[in-house]
Write a structure and sequence with these properties.
alpha+beta, four-stranded mixed sheet
Amino acid sequence: MARVTGIGGVFLKARDPKALSAWYAEHLGVQLADYGGASFQWSDEGPAGTGQTTWMIFPAESKHFPGSVMINYRVDDLDALLAQLAAANVPIDPKRDEASYGKFAWITDPEGNRVELWQPLAD
């Protein structure tokens, strides 16, 4: 049977796409290519051996995140990134979570999208 093997893209709508793209570049290091998007290669994986993307459907009444979409971004140093974001006055949810597979934090981008940041833990 044919099946999905991963996430091929993440797409957001924005009132001001150029400004939102610039915000993601400045605060999360997402660098746009000439075509206007960003490509993340598995060679960016860190720590090695943790490369996976999770896809899940939540019930409509779920309180896990507001709205209909939340993106989870893998990060290499969650604490350092949160310090950078705080210094730039980016809205940061005070909630933190840690599981056997990584540390989590949440921020809000200028368009009001909730963004989940995840630092995978090495085995």
